Amino acid sequence: MKHQDSPQLAGFLANQFPLIAFAVGTAGLALSAISYLVNPERFFFSYLTAFMFFLTITLGALFFVTIQNLVRSGWSVVVRRIPEQMISNFGLMALFFIPILFGLHTLYEWTHPAVVAGDHLLITKSGYLNLKFFLIRVVFYFSVWILLARTYFTRSTTQDQTGDPTLTLKNQTTSTYGILLFAITITFSAVDWVMSLTPHWFSTMFGVYIFAGSTVASLAAISLLAMILRKAGYLANTIRIDHYHDLGKLLYGFNIFWSYIAFSQYFLIWYANIPEETFWFTDHFRGSWNSVGILLAVGHFGIPFLLFMSRHVKRNLVTHAMMAVWFLFIHFVDLYWIIMPNVSKAGVTFAWVDITALLGIGGIYIGVLFTRMKKYPLFPVKDPRLSDSMHFENV
Amino acid sequence: MKKDVVSVLGEFTTPQTLLKAVKTARKAGYKAMETYTPFPVHGMDDAIGIKPSKLPWIVLICGAVGLASGFALQTWVSTSAYKLTISGKPFFSYQAFVPVMFELMVLFAAFGTVFGMLILNRLPRWYDALFKTKRFHTVTSHGFFLEIQAQDHLFDIEKTAEYLSEIGGTNVEVVKA
């Protein structure tokens, strides 16, 4: 080994940066709270969008950790600690869900018994869409995520101390049912929290759609975090260009998967032309929302498909970083386009709370992330496959 | 120099010794080299100085042509050649064209990949001179071979063969067509 990177985060990223993030986060949340007093309805929808943005990124990270453990992946060992740190934020995301509980009546039409009583479709769906079962599911989703995340994280960080290779096998065993639990929880939470904003709608693809978007955003976030650490002088010889290349390939592939799912959802509904299904797209293409839809087709699929195709773009960290930022941005646009037409019905309207909620949740999220990062090594220092991963070459 | 001589072939026992030999030979000025190994050896492409394949460009162009032909075909058929009203949708329903455009893109790209690969590798060939050598059959199990080809500007049957043994090659053979 030529040069061993320090696994210990120190200096600006470990000390000042989390404080800056906490300050931005607190300011963002405070400003969002003020906007709640002005316009509670707008606040809840913007907050839900920001919440979903960070939740989906965390879920994508859970998928990454699970799948890498499951397939006994060698190349990704050096990268794995970053998503492991991200999924440890599920507890924080559970706290961020609390404000949404106060907005259930504003967000979700089906929580009003009077509305449901006069609506045949909602009566039929009320076996699933009722407040009690909804809350049970909320507890279930967060329990599953927090437990899975803690299990992976604790084993992986214990291994940093003991070097016990059986912990790797145990994580692999957990990931077998972990991937099933992940598939169920991400699908149903997407249905519960986002799709049920329009409870009359039918789409069997919605869960996969959110899953595809979260994986794209999460891979972009993992790449970006690794590059931020690299810029600060960490992991430069550990997470090498070959690893970024592979992250880029996964990102590119999952972005095409997103496009495929997004188009399939639209296409089947367009073809069948049944009013119970088409109204969702009519609502989401109304006025200037139409331009956002076109932006998604071009910006989430067309532009990245052409620009991010070449291996040179994936292996060049400047272009890779630019694409990763773009993927995160367009993922936010995607969620914005899914959620916001429910409150801003005639077309796109901008409100400051859209940004302050994002900064609020994001600031605290990043602050907690970097505070935890300095407590643990930046890569799994005693993973049995670490050497494989460090010598990994991408052909 | 005899006309039927194709190359000189040397055998190595491990991927590391082969890789080292390739690097040495490259430094000595040899350019027309080829290696044969039971499995891909990391770093070999760089060591030989192989240029990136042109195949991705062929595939990209074929894919684009496939996409365009899928679009053109369906537009022509459904807007002028054979107009059919399908569930009341406009004749030019580009949404409905997408699956066929996608499929034709994949088909053309796949053809481009397979036939492009064959053409770039000059395949199929009836036989390869290497098959006539004594040792080359071990390449599928444990043999690592370096071949210095006759078109190299430094190539000279005796000197090159000697050079191959010098850099660690064993069972050096002259390959004849």
Q: Would you write up a description of this structure?
A:
The complex is a heterodimer of chains A (395) and B (177). Chain A has helices at residues 16-38, 40-70, 77-87, 90-102, 104-107, 113-117, 120-125, 131-162, 166-193, 206-231, 241-272, 275-284, 289-307, 311-315, 317-339, 352-373, 386-390. With 395 residues, chain A is mainly alpha-helical. The radius of gyration of chain A is 21 Å and the shape is globular. Chain B has 177 residues and is α+β, with helices and mostly antiparallel strands. Chain B has two domains: 5-51 and 129-176; 55-120, no CATH class. Chain B is built from five helices and four strands. Chain B has helices spanning 15-27, 44-48, 55-81, 94-120, 157-166; strands at residues 5-12, 33-36, 144-149, 170-176. Chain B has a four-stranded antiparallel β-sheet with strand order 2-3-1-4. Chain B is elongated and about 80 Å long. The chains are: A mainly alpha (395), B alpha+beta (177). Chains A and B meet through helix 11 of A and helix 4 of B.
Distance between the termini of chain B: 14 Å
Gap between N and C termini of chain A: 20 Å
- The number of helical segments of chain B is 5
* Nearest-integer average pLDDT of chain B: 92
Major sheet attributes of chain B: 4 strands, antiparallel
Compute the number of helices of chain A. Answer: 17
Query: Can you list the strand order of the major beta sheet of chain B?
Result: 2-3-1-4
Gyration radius of chain B, in Å? 25 Å
Spell out the helices and strands of chain A N to C.
HHHHHHHHHHHHHHHHH
Protein structure class of chain B: alpha+beta
- The percent range for strand residues of chain B is 5-15%
The coarse silhouette of chain B is elongated
Low-pLDDT windows of residues of chain A: none
> Helix coverage percent of residues of chain B?
40-55%
Number of strands of chain B: 4
Strand count, sense and barrel status of the largest sheet of chain A are: none
Assembly of the depicted chains? heterodimer
